[in-house]
Amino acid sequence: MATYVKNMTTGSEIRHIAYFALPLFVGNLFQQVYNFTNSIIVGKFIDKDALAAVGATSSITFLFYSLCLGLATGAGIIASHHFGAGRIEELKKSIINSAYVTILFGIIISIISILVARDVLQLLNTPDAIIEDSTKYMRISCAGTVAVAAYNWIASELRALGDSRTPLIFLIFSCILNVILDLFFILVLHMGICGAALSTVLSQGVSAGISILYALKNNSYFRFTKEHFLFDRTMFIQSIKIGMPIAAQSAMIAVSMVALQRVVNGFGENVVAAYTATMRIEQLVQQPFQSLNSAISNFAGQNAGARKEDRIIRGYHKCVLLVAGIAFFMFAIFMIFGHNIVGLFVNDAEVIRIGTNALRVSCCFYIFLGLIHITRGLLNGVGDTNYAMINGLAEVIGRVGFSSILIHIPIVGIWAVWGTTALTWMLTAFASIIRYRKRKWKLV
Asked: What is d(CA 58, CA 283) in angstroms, rounded to the nearest whole number?
């Protein structure tokens, strides 16, 4: 019997979604605690330029990581459909062939990202004071793209079977290992920013390896025969066909963030540091929304395989209410404690002032961010991955378009950075809801 496997095609919709989302949220929270810790260690024990150097690379590394994440998400969608329909042999073949796709693209992306690191950072107008550290950090981080791809693949496959607990266990292990290595490399070996990057790569690789070994030993759906390992051209192409639009969506979102990062870099080190701090905080804010995204995606995937459209719709409507409550709670927290939270990252008063005011702008728009996540999750889950391209395009248009306009309005100034993000969330949320209401995803 497969460990923690859960069939979500019967029973309470919101209970399944919430039960599935909770381990994801806890895991994502641990991941963000690591990100917080990493940023605090870098900002406090090295200096603010080191923190800015990490931030200057974040949008680029997200671009390369997101390509692999998109392929892993696509693999999970295929697996959830087979699982919901009870097609066990097809499920096992899809797991193996999606692994071939993930490994291949992970290696290719690792090589490319290392080669172009410095050129891309120069193209983004990365300040001279931090470009050397930024290049080192990016090259080491991107060298581990294949490890990131492997972890996201195994986690996505397990979640497709309704198992969100096992990925949580190994994510927590990865985060704890990451923090320990961070402290060791930076405080003991004095490796500086290179130590921070190396700790991330090593912890991801170890976590991916033990996750796969655990699944092979304990999950019955990972019990393969020689026939399952045969290359299946149809399955291989299907994994690419489903995964590439999602990967392209993530890539376009990343490109839009790269474009915004270029605007941020133009305002100097203080704004880069403040932006880095607020990005770390907003990554934490997104965790409950991202957890619901994955939960409703897998819920919708299984029910799409079982041809239960009414359950998908009811689950989505209940998720909208959850998102509204979470957004209001986050709004209150950042309005009251924004200054204290930003102060965790840096000691510089000007950076804290900028970051605090930026958070108070962004938190007014969290409802739109939540709607993006749950609607995107549902559409991906039912197989409407073509919309992923439209969704990504909306983010590109928003971040490039709004930033181009706002930076030329004198009264806006540096707030063009965070105003662009807020307006982009609005635009993308409306595009997502329109797609949902048009019902192009309707099950036949």
From this structure: 12
CA 225, CA 207: separation in Å to the nearest integer?
25
Roughly how many angstroms between the first and final C-alpha of the chain, as a whole number?
32
Residues 6+ apart with CB under 8 A from 300: 312, 315, 316, 377, 378, 380, 381, 382
- Here the tokens at position 342 are 């930003």
For 24-87, strand residue ranges (E) read none
Condensed to tens digits (0 to 9), the pLDDT of residues 210-234 reads: 888 888 888 788 888 888 888 878 8
CB 174 within 8 A of CB 206: yes
Cα–Cα distance for residue pair 320/305, rounded to 1 Å: 23
* Angstrom distance (rounded) from CA 315 to CA 338: 33
Give yes or no for a contact between 376 and 292, defined as CB atoms under 8 angstroms apart: no
For the segment 262-282, the average pLDDT, to the nearest whole number, is: 81
Q: CA 81, CA 93: separation in Å to the nearest integer? A: 13
Mean pLDDT, all residues of the chain: 82
Dihedral, 376, 380, 386, 387 alpha carbons, nearest 10: -10
Please give the torsion angle defined by the CA atoms of residues 204, 207, 210 and 211, in that order, rounded to the nearest 10 degrees: -110
Distance CA 196, CA 176 (A): 14
157 token code pair: 């496959």
List pLDDT tens digits, range 103-150: 888 888 888 888 888 888 887 777 777 788 788 888 888 888 888 888
In a 13 Å sphere around the CA of 197, the CA atoms on its Cβ side amount to: 25
Residue 160 pLDDT > 60: yes
d(CA 161, CA 7): 7
Distance CA(54)–CA(38), nearest Å, equals 10
Tokens 């810790």, residue?
37
Residue corresponding to tokens 């999950």: 219
Sign of CA dihedral 183, 185, 189, 190: negative
pLDDT for 423 equals 92
Token pair listed for 286 = 């997104």
